[in-house]
Write a structure and sequence with these properties.
This protein has 187 residues and is of the alpha+beta class. The chain has one domain. It has seven helices and five strands; from the N terminus they run H-E-E-H-H-E-H-H-H-E-H-E. Helix 4 packs across helix 6. The protein is globular.
Length: 187
């Protein structure tokens, strides 16, 4: 891909030596029965400095949609050592109060921190997962010119219309989800 992003620049050589020769690093978190690790948020300033030619993508969505996704993941993917994803996040992540409203506040803080930390990144974009797919494709095409539009997809396209939060309802003005440093993965 030829674009504003230099995937194999000399400045990324050290990072590639340490982490592998990948073009995309996405969803680096680990939420186990005893740990809550989000390096893509905790170390975002370090990643921005270490990878000056990288393009960072902040995926966001209405917080109520994100909570519904956490609940669905729990139902469809099962549990981890007897704990579902919601229980692991509430039990292991620095969330207060330890309930869904605390989880939403925690997710919102992650998004705000990522926006702040990405201010110095040369290439950054924020993708609202609730936006129309055509809008998302256009944003990605502008950022990565020359890439075929057919390369961009929206993983949340099957989301039911009843899940969407209407403008003006609780949760709609604040977008949230943990930071995903991804390029073509939109969900």
């Amino acid at each position: 891909m030829q674009s504003t992003v230099a995937l194999h620049s000399p400045s990324s050589a050290t990072f590639r030596d340490m982490c592998g020769a990948y073009d995309v690093f996405a969803q680096l978190d680990s939420i186990t029965a005893t740990a809550c690790i989000f390096p893509q948020v905790s170390f975002l300033p370090t990643l921005v400095n270490a990878l000056p030619d990288a393009c960072f993508v902040l995926n966001t969505r209405p917080l109520n949609d994100w909570i519904r996704s956490i609940r669905r993941y729990t139902r469809t993917k099962g549990s981890f050592f007897g704990m579902d994803l919601m229980d692991r996040m509430l039990g292991n992540c620095p969330i207060w109060p330890r309930n869904e409203s605390g989880l939403m506040a925690w997710a919102q803080q992650h998004v705000l921190a990522a926006r702040h930390d990405l201010q110095t990144a040369r290439c950054k974009l924020e993708i609202d997962l609730a936006a129309p797919p055509a809008q998302t494709r256009e944003l990605l095409n502008q950022t990565f010119p020359g890439t075929k539009a057919s390369c961009w997809g929206v993983a949340n396209a099957a989301r039911q219309a009843s899940d969407a939060v209407a403008p003006g309802k609780v949760g709609s003005p604040v977008r949230g989800q943990g930071f995903n440093a991804s390029v073509a993965e939109l969900g």
